[in-house]
Amino acid sequence: MKGARNVFEGVVENAFDKNNFNKIASYFTKADEDRIKASKPDTSDLDAAIDQFNTSWKGKYGENFGIKDNESIFNGQFVALNSPAGTTGDSTAGAATAATVAASHGMPELSVPLAQEGGLYKIDVPDGVDGKVLHDNLLSAIKDLQEKSSSWPDDKAEAYRQVSHRILMAVMNKS
């Protein structure tokens, strides 16, 4: 589960750092990463939305956005790792599995396919997600989160879960 948590943390944190579009893609399978990086659009509008979000986050929570304890944020009630049928959960290189994000914060349950490459979990994004689709989905997600900033949970851990759920939906083209 630790590897899946690390991947989710990396994707979510980099989604809120300007100029980190390619870094987000580095958490995807090699084929997905290559496809997304090859079709990366201009991200200046995404960077502007990130600035607005970060200003709102700091205003509400008194600190910069940053997941400090991914074990408590991506806990077993929020994310479950599902091994493929016939395995014990000790995936071998290249073995596929999925993480299930529980329905929460007004969003549906989300299955996030994972694969192991080089001993690390990587997200296997849908083949239809290229750089433009990812950009547009992230921009929409960040603007949506920003528009709802007045109703973010008072509990910062719940807010991190809400934001993570929305960003993972964008990555999986479910926005």
The rounded distance between the terminal residues' Cα atoms is 25 Å
Structural class: alpha+beta
Task: State the shape.
Answer: globular
Write down the overall mean pLDDT: 91
Domain module count? 1
- Strand order of the biggest β-sheet: 1-2-3-4
Helix content: 40-55%
How would you spell out the order of helices and strands?
Answer: HHHHHEEEEHH
Unreliable segments of 5+ consecutive residues? 85-94
> What is the count of helical runs?
7
- Estimated share of beta-strand residues: 5-15%
Radius of gyration: 15 Å
- Biggest sheet details: 4 strands, antiparallel
The beta-strand count equals: 4
Summarize the structure.
By secondary structure, the protein is α+β, with helices and mostly antiparallel strands. The protein has helices at residues 2-15, 21-25, 30-38, 44-61, 70-73, 131-147, 156-171, and strands at residues 79-82, 96-101, 110-117, 120-123.
Label this structure with key terms.
175 residues; alpha+beta; 4 strands; 13% strand
List the helices and strands and how they pair.
Layout: H1 2-15, H2 21-25, H3 30-38, H4 44-61, H5 70-73, E1 79-82, E2 96-101, E3 110-117, E4 120-123, H6 131-147, H7 156-171
Antiparallel strand pairs: 1-2, 2-3, 3-4
What features would you describe in this structure?
- By secondary structure, the chain is α+β, with helices and mostly antiparallel strands.
- The chain has one domain.
- Helix content is 47%, strand content 13%.
- The chain has a four-stranded antiparallel beta sheet with strand order 1-2-3-4.
- Helix 1 (2-15) crosses helix 7 (156-171), helix 4 (44-61) packs parallel to helix 6 (131-147) and helix 6 (131-147) packs antiparallel against helix 7.
- The chain is globular and about 40 Å long.
